[in-house]
Amino acid sequence: MKLSSKDLLGIKELTKDEITLILDTASGFKDVLRRDIKKVPALRGKTAVNLFFEPSTRTRTSFELAEKRLSLDVLNLSVTTSSVVKGESLIDTALNVQALGADFMIIRHSSSGAPHLLSRNVHASVINAGDGVNEHPTQALLDAFTIKEKLGRIEGIRIAIVGDILHSRVAKSNIYLLTKFGAEVRLIGPPTLVPQELESLGVKVFNDMDSGLRNANVVMMLRIQMERQGKGFFPSTLEYFKYWGLTTDRLSLSGNDVIVMHPGPMNRGVEIASEIADSPRSVILEQVTNGLAVRMAVMYLLAGVRG
Amino acid sequence: MRILIKDGHIIDASTGIDGIGDILIENWKIIEVRMQDKKSKKRASDITHSESDKTIDAKGLYVFPGFIDMHTHLREPGFEYKETIRTGTLAAVKGGFTTVCAMPNTNPVNDNSSVTDFIIRKAIQEGACTVYPIGTITKGQRGEELAEMGIMFNEGCVAFSDDGRPVMNSLIMRRALEYARSFNVPVISHCEDMSLSEGGVMNEGLLSITLGLRGIPTEAEEVMVARDIALAKLTGGRLHIAHVSTECSVRLIREAKGMGINVTAETCPHYFSITEDAVKGYNTNAKVNPPLRKQKDIDAIKQGLRDGTIDVIATDHAPHHRDEKLREFDQSPSGISGLETAFSLSLGLVHEGVLDMNQLAEKITVNPARILGIDKGMLRAGADADIVIVDTKRDFRVEPERFASKGKNTPFDGWVLRGMPVMTICKGRLYE
After folding, report:
1. Could B328 and A133 be called an inter-chain contact, meaning their C-beta atoms sit closer than 8 Å?
2. Which member of A113, A117, A198 has the closest CB to residue B209?
3. B209 shares contact with chain A (CB less than 8 Å)
4. Are B328 and A91 in contact (CB < 8 Å)?
């Protein structure tokens, strides 16, 4: 089986079978990462360009290392050093990168749909590394990989996603993926950050955290972006933590085998108490490791589409 | 020079004429309209070929007064790379319009009589059709202090609007509506509560969430429609609401009219032809402000057109350069190049049975003429020879690259529409 598109634009665009293929392939790469020599020659001679129009540390370094593990030649373009600041359009930047011989363009951009615009205008494989508040597909894939690894399945599990769903591309991609696989998805947060309309996506919205956490198998905390404070979404981080912060007491309402996830970077004491972040329930650092395997799998499979 | 238009189906909503007849033009005026007797199918006396230098056979075609667009962005001065008075008016006549009203958000903005004067002169020199400028309500379109409406009115402005930038300060809007009464001119309101719509780029709802695009709720329009209606009631000023896009706006306007408040309203073809779904795939050509809404809004707008709540169909012709639309969705400008598709899309309402031909004619001829207080939109002896001949049965494919407008930005690319203007006459000048 092959992926059907040369690009990974979002989870929305993938079928369940394609997601399974990516996760299975990632599993093989995870084995590679356990070896003494962690590099494979799979994509030697090909070039990946990381186009990051938004600040990012973990996603960019994860992609970069995944690329190196696959023996790709890697070029990093960040917004401060590129000609974008001189007014060059996104398409022109991409065409220039393509002229250098890029086979992969990994793009992070503050505008939703920027990877889609790119994919229509370049031959290279475009991978969405987070676009605006639309999607962050590789994050959802690594989350699914982690859940499967820890709980053995996705179907039927109860997962609570807590926080700023409205502005979270991570949450969006996770919602699409988890509902495709028949998980029970609950979204928790204040109505200003968790709009009721989301229920049309086949999820349940809870404004009360305690009822949302009941019997959950997975709790996924989202980062509360400090810039939301003062914009009227909630009055203060103190009040936010009181109602929607994850504490040990609250976590005890969920299932015994519950795991706690966070896409990072986390704000200790704002959305998650330190003792949980550092507890054995937390799989946050495993998510990071799995991200490497998943991103290797995505690039490997996309290379197969382009031949 | 005399031109005879023979045997066309003449529609003139100003006189209620609806039948087969002939029109004789001399230079830039209509000198005679002669209708065939409906029963005997005979005219009192035929206008003969010998009376004219040129005869146009309009058999099987409709003949309307030239259309009037009260909401056009001609972009000149300042944005000539998007459109000029020349190209915009050529697009107008191609679309059957013989009169367009130029919105003031040019650079410099039309907030003083020297810009008004520039537009009028340029239109006389280079324009293919008649251009009436619209001045700003406030200086610099900033919503802070009134622009010199009286002087601009005297120079030729027919209405006032801060289009694209609502007057957020209710007191200033109140003063504008009051002050404009001195000249009996309409104040055109772009209804949008800027704090509710902040950062929004499409209709708010499930689709905006799934596309990850910031939404503009219908209420951003409706609260301003409600406010402006309240201010029209308070002041007795003439309020015209631009580009109505939502169900509740239609309801508010209907109710206001029922209360006898001095309010009129327009909508645009895209608000009754396509829904927000056109945005899918981040199609920047479907990005417009107010944004495309849902089917229930389309249904309400059609009902509003049918029962007279909405007086006018305007284009909100908003041409942009290709490079500006080939961008990230949230960074591309809003607007649709509408002059060359507006009539055909509106005629769709007649094909669907929403309007009859006379009602359609009202919305694009007499009603805008009445609101603007201009001597246009009629076919009678002594009137300007502004006439459009329409083949209501001919299908055509929308091909933006063949637009006369510089703006190729249309979400109707590739659509096949039924019915199109085949000839436009502006003050006696023929465009085929």
Report:
1. no
2. A198
3. yes
4. no
Residue type present at position A32: V
Q: Do the beta carbons of residue B109 and residue B115 sit within 8 Å? A: yes
The single residue of B316, B323, B375, B413 carrying the catalytic annotation is B316
Distance of residue B65 Cα from the nearest chain A Cα, in angstroms: 44
Asked whether B225 and B265 are in contact (CB, 8 A), the reply is no
Alpha-carbon torsion angle B11, B14, B17, B23, nearest 10: -70
Tokens, residue A65: 């290392």
- Report the distance separating Cα A81 and Cα A100, nearest Å: 17
> What residues are paired with B313 via a beta bridge?
B267
- Name the 3-class secondary structure at A135: strand
Q: Mention every residue, 6+ apart, whose C-beta is less than 8 A from residue A24.
A: none
Tell me the pairing of strands A104-109 and A73-78: unpaired
Closest listed residue to residue A209, CA positions, set A240, A183, A176: A240
pTM equals 0.94
The reply to whether B195 touches chain A by the CB within 8 Å rule is no
pLDDT digits over A109-152, tens only? Answer: 999 999 999 999 999 999 999 999 999 999 999 999 999 999 99
Q: Closest Cα of chain B to A288: distance in Å? A: 25
Beta strands in B13-82 (DSSP E): 17-26, 29-35, 54-57, 62-65, 67-72
Residue A195, chain B, CB below 8 Å: the answer is yes
* pLDDT tens for each residue of B213-263: 999 999 999 999 999 999 999 999 999 999 999 999 999 999 999 999 999
Q: What is the DSSP string of A8-49?
A: B--STT--HHHHHHHHHHHHHHHHHHHSSS----TTTT-EEE
B residues 384-423 lying closer than 8 A (beta carbon) to A: none
Q: Are strands B312-313 and B215-216 parallel, antiparallel or unpaired?
A: unpaired
**C-beta atoms of A197 and B212 within 8 A:** no
Radius of gyration of chain B from its Cα atoms, rounded to whole angstroms: 21
- Evaluate the omega torsion of the peptide bond into residue B166 and state whether it is cis, within 30 degrees of 0: no
